[in-house]
Amino acid sequence: MGVLRQGGSAAGVSLLKRSGNLKALVLGLGVVFVSSAFPAAAALPEDAATTAAPAEDFNKASGVVIQAAVQALAPGLVRIETVGGAQPQEGVDEDDPETEAPRPRAAPFRDTPGSSFRLADGPTTGVIWSADGLIVTSSFNFVRDPLVISVVLPDGRRVAADLVARDQVHKVALLKVDATGLHVPRWAPMSDVRVGQTTLALGLGFGSREPAVSAGVVSAVGRMSGTCVQTDALLSPVNYGGPLADLEGRIIGLCVPMAQRPGELAGIEMYDSGVGFALTAERVRAIVAGLETGRSVYRGWLGIQVDARRPDAVIVDRIADPSPMRDAGAQRGDRIIGVSGRRIGHYGHFVQALALAPAGMSVRLQIVRGEQTLELTVKLVRAEELGPLPEDPPEPFDPADPHGQQPPEQP
Questions:
Q1: Which of 25, 79, 267, 400 has its CA 20 to 30 A from that of 110?
Q2: In the predicted model, is pLDDT for residue 90 greater than 80?
């Protein structure tokens, strides 16, 4: 039809057919961009110089690129199905986002787990990590130990899987199946990732053999304390545990429901919002190396509740007993101004500083107590190791004068 058809999509497709190289197609697709953005050279025939590339040609060419990337990735993906693996329902999350210590549950929730938990009964996605059966996925379906885990391999075989370990801080789980010769997809180093590049999020959460695909771009890098890539591709339980990939069929991140606020299910509320996160290849590699030992990683807790009336500061209001903060000598009214050398100006800073801190990690807290500036070394623990918070103080507490009493309100 014209030069743009020959030099654009048709040329790209022919390059792919001749070489089987996806890069060749991307190069051909690049010609579409160049040809449609600039006028043809004067030496070209006049009719060719004024002919616009039909939109369908571009769509077909870009579709071929995406399809080729999906075909390269699909042999490295598995569908994971669980029975059990219960999760807290809305409103009774183990980790209360408004406090550093777990919110005490009402008696019915302690005694009737059926009323406070729901089954994670939908399929999810996993990525083959090693040819001998290691599979990395999101911990979304593994907040509790499922009764049964089955994995559907790319060739359709259904096999039983064991949960090796999980990292509830980064929302990653490692599974093991009895299989060999599995296809391991390629991972792209962070040095190859650029803001604005096209991304593909793949998931098998609908239960089909073919992955569902959501396209977007890299919105930002270095998110979540440098652990994640941010994308506007739609991420949800359908593709949690699946890959965020580039157009060459390489994985640039593992899709997980990350969030700065605490909570085992934090981040779930952002699904399909256009704000999604994927752990980088380097971070996943480090996480898997730890999980292969069989030791799970859990979020660390200090065991305090801060004064909600002072969002501009972090002032200790209540301290669980027992708790790391109680053991370290913290007192009600202490103002936290630093975490391991990181300045804390308000509650948001405090949450960010501890959001990815695991149980067992020691942190240094810089606090102000009266006229003194002190430093406490505190070893974080799991939530279930904390004692109860004390009852509300019998008298009003004035954060501006923590050692005095606030006068009663005047009528």
A1: 267
A2: no
